[in-house]
């Protein structure tokens, strides 16, 4: 009978500490190259989903029609998310500081998980100034595999993803993103 290896004698799983170490190194490498902001690749295009305006009397529209310029900051949110309201207000404050012709449009979009009437009631109770939207179907959230909100997406008029962040995101971080994207 041969003596068991020292790794097995100490109660280590089959494969010993070397296997565990390789797994940990692999996980840390993945996190280094894909931080928490990484949900989609910068080369991704967003689906041109149908949006329901959270203002009464407005007709549904496509995401591409919600842009008023060449760049948009899309904030994916849920009506049950207090930090989402704060994130939208922070983006609105940045827009105000940038003056009358800001280089981007703010496009807040709610998940279709909740009924539109409920989302609209919550939106109306928030003290935000932006026009809000809700997805008609879960296309954008599914495409990006969004599980937690808010998620901030910088996108061009052709719906190409230019950058993406998860909250909390400060106005300073949004300014840095804007500087990289526009040079302003």
From TrEMBL:
<protein>
    <recommendedName>
        <fullName>Thioredoxin domain-containing protein</fullName>
    </recommendedName>
</protein>
<dbReference type="InterPro" id="IPR036249">
    <property type="entry name" value="Thioredoxin-like_sf"/>
</dbReference>
């Amino acid at each position: 009978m041969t003596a068991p290896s020292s790794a097995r004698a100490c109660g280590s799983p089959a494969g010993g500490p070397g296997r565990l170490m390789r797994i940990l190194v692999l996980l840390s490498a993945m996190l280094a190259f894909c931080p928490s902001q990484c949900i989609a690749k910068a080369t991704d295009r967003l689906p041109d989903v149908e949006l329901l305006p959270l203002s009464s009397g407005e007709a549904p529209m496509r995401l591409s029609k919600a842009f008023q310029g060449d760049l948009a900051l899309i904030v994916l949110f849920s009506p049950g998310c207090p930090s989402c309201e704060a994130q939208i207000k922070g983006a609105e404050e940045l827009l105000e500081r940038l003056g009358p012709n800001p280089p981007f449009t703010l496009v807040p979009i709610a998940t279709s998980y909740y009924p539109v009437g409920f989302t609209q009631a919550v939106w109306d109770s928030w003290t935000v100034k932006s026009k809000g939207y809700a997805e008609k179907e879960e296309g954008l959230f599914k495409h990006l595999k969004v599980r937690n909100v808010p998620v901030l997406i910088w996108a061009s008029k052709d719906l190409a993803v230019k950058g993406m962040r998860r909250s909390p995101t400060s106005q300073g971080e949004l300014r840095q993103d804007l500087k990289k994207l526009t040079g302003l």
